[in-house]
Specification:
Blueprint (H helix, E strand, L loop, with lengths): L2 E4 L5 H7 L9 E2 L6 E3 L8 E4 L5 E10 L2 E9 L8 E12 L2 E13 L3 E3 L3 E11 L5 E13 L1 E7 L4 E2 L4 E10 L3 E10 L3 H11 L3
Antiparallel strand pairs: 1-6, 2-3, 3-5, 4-5, 5-8, 6-7, 7-13, 8-9, 8-12, 10-11, 10-14, 14-15
Amino acid sequence: MKRTRTAALALAAAAAAVAPALGQASATAAPGTGYLQDPAGGEHEMKSLWTKDQKHKLEGQVRFHPGIQYGTVNRPSHPHDPRGERQVPDPDTLAWEPSYEFAWAVSDVLVNKGLTTKNGTHPIVVHAVLRDAKGVARAEVEKKLTGQPATGRQKVAGGKRIACDTGEYTVEWSVTRTHYGTLTGSLRWDSGCERYRKAFSSENGRA
């Protein structure tokens, strides 16, 4: 019998072992979180764009969550273990199901670009495309958000599974505030699953 589970990994040892695998040359994985961020840094690191009249500013950020998934199988426990059987991850079922987390901040100038305020509600459009090494779009999301606060964060499910070890991908993203402009960015992601396999194999050997 197999059951599908989604990480947040069930095994702490596996999570610790695979965390370094998420770091890429063009983006950094926050320790223990399993996401890539553009621009790299903390929650308040943003790309910014001023309108031509210098009266409005749009800021944006994206976090790409690879979303590892796997199935489990029943394995016999140690002969003297009263549990009889235990469920362990099955490395052959590893796959990715990405999601995208967008953040934005909208500022309006009050006095000569020296004093800004963030208030009111805003129409925000978030968009991301996951492209393979040949530039082919393998997944795409777009969501129109109305009546949003001046600062906000929204996570959008990718809705598509990506097979392990299918090469390097590029995430192209944008955040648009209607009539203010569109911020864009990109980051790279490697779909390799070898470290997960090793971590699971090591854990599966334990009674």
